[in-house]
Every structure is written in structure tokens, then in C-alpha cells.
Amino acid sequence: MSTSTTLYGGAAHRRVTILDLRAAKERGEKWAMLTSYEQMTAAIFDEAGIPVLLVGDSAGNNFLGEENTIPVTVDELIPLTRAVVRGSQRALVVADLPFGSYESSPEQALATSTRFFKEAGAMAVKLEGAHVATVEKLTAAGIPVMGHLGLTPQSLHQLGGYRVQGRTDGDAILEAALALEKAGAFAIVLELVPADLASRISKALTVPTIGIGAGSDCDAQVLVWTDMAGLTANPPKLAKAYRNLRRELLDAAQEFAVEVRNGKFPTERETFH
Fold first, then answer.
1. Do residues 181 and 257 both lie within one domain?
2. For residue 1, what pLDDT band results from cuts at 50, 70 and 90?
3. Is the pLDDT of residue 167 over 60?
4. Rounded Cα–Cα distance for residues 14 and 120 (Å)
5. Residues 199 and 272 both lie in one domain
6. Do 266 and 151 sit in the same domain of this protein?
7. Which of 22, 165, 204, 214 has the fewest CB atoms within 10 Å, counting from its CB?
8. Residues near 55 by Cβ (< 8 Å), separated by ≥ 6?
9. Nearest 5°: phi and psi at 199?
């Protein structure tokens, strides 16, 4: 890797910024985003050159044992965000605003976002839905905002489950994306929308789109890291496992247990005198 620039255009001695991401779109340069919930994966993904790490409310069903993202609280996500910030050196760290922490008013969203910035060191926040006035409020206060349209998991009960969005109301999603961009959003996640719609939106916006189950024409792609690494037992269709970490961890744990039962661990190498 160059000593002067990262793969995604940011200087090697500093964090990736929202300006770097906009410049990458102008160059036609695609980039990857991964979720991270603690310092170990943050350090690994940062070393791998992942420019944006999302401390997602997906921690609920991937880290905290919840059925979905709805029960996740601000108090649960703040220490996770703090750990990701501490574990990384160059990635832009984005904190998800969990359900119930921003919908009431732009003022509520500002108070929540301020906590993530002051208590965890977040560099941006993400929120679901077309909350245009809220995006305006946050950006005016100096808080970069990533939007999220299409399937918005916090609204899964209203949407009737994890279903593709935009097959019949694509124009409405496009209009929402344009409105979020005008309000100041620096990027917009498009989740589970038809590929042709995601392509239309990506071409219409000057800010990057981040796809998840939205085809290859988005400016960036995001995956939940446990899906990407093959740790998830039953991953969604939109995911691709690049390794089988679940199998590796299972084999390692079983091998450890067998060696303990057979008296083969610890050996002299792991013993002190």
C-alpha cells in the first residue's frame, strides 16, 4: 500500500472522511463497508483497508442475542462504538441510531447523536427512513449523517417482515434519496431494493450509495461481518461468506476440549516453573 494515500483516496496518516468518499464516487471508485462491534474486528478490518466501519444496531441479533434490531439501546451501542473507534486508526466509524432514539424529533436525534460523538468518538451517524428535517438538524450541528432507505429493519413489523422494497413504489424511494441528499446526507444505504432501482438512484445522486441486496451498481457495498466471514449459521440471501469461520471456530473449540480431556493441554511449552 502506498505511504501517501490509502486505496480509497484518504491520506494514510489520518482517518477517512466523508470528503474522501465523495471523491471516490467522482472517480468511479467503489469501496466496502463492514459492521464491527468491538476492537478486535475493528483492528483487523482497519488493517485490511476497509474505509468505513458501521457499528450497526445489527449488534442486536449478531452480538447481543436479540431476535432483531428493535430492542437495541443507545446505552448498549455506545460502548461498542467506543471500542471500534479505539480499535481502528484510519476507518471512518459510523454509529447506528437505534430504534426509539431519534424518531420523535430532530432535537431527540441531536441529543442522541451528541452522546455518540462525545461518549464514543463516533465520526458520523446512520438513521433509517426519510427523516429530512432530522438530517438537516444534525448536519447543521456538524454531525455527518448516513441515510438508509429500502428495507429499514427497525420497521420490519410495519413492512411485514424482511421483504424487497421498491418494486411498486420505486419513484418514492428515489425521491426520498434525493431529499436526503439535499438535506445534507453524505451517503445512503439502499437495502433490499431491485437492482435497476438502485442503479437509477446511484446515478441520480452525487453522494455515494451503499448497497446491501441492491445489485452491483451501487457506489459501495456493505455486509454484516459475521455473514462475510461465514460465522452466521443461516445467512440471508444477500450475503456472501468469504470464509467458513463458523467451521474453523467449531473445530478449534472441539480440538481444545479433546486435548484437555486427554491431558494433552497444557504441554511443557505452556507451563511455567
1. no
2. very low
3. yes
4. 18
5. no
6. no
7. 204
8. 35, 36, 37, 77, 80, 81, 84, 93, 94, 95, 96, 122
9. -65, -45
pLDDT digits (tens, 9 = 90+) for 175-210: 999 999 999 999 999 999 999 999 999 999 999 999
CB atoms within 10 A of CB 196: 12
Is-contact 214 150, C-beta < 8 A?
Answer: yes
Contact 83, 63 (CB under 8 A): no
Number of domains in the chain: 2
Report how far residue 91's alpha carbon sits from residue 46's, in angstroms, rounded to the nearest whole number. 6
Domain boundaries, position 258: 243-273
What number of residues does the chain have? Answer: 273
Where are the alpha helices (H) located in the chain, listed in sequence order?
18-27, 39-47, 59-62, 74-87, 106-115, 132-140, 156-159, 170-183, 195-204, 225-228, 245-261
Residues labelled as active-site residues:
191
CA torsion through residues 14, 16, 20, 24, sign: positive
CA–CA gap between residue 218 and residue 203 (Å, rounded): 9
Task: Say whether pLDDT at 9 is over 80.
Answer: no
Provide the residue type at 39 as one letter. Answer: Q
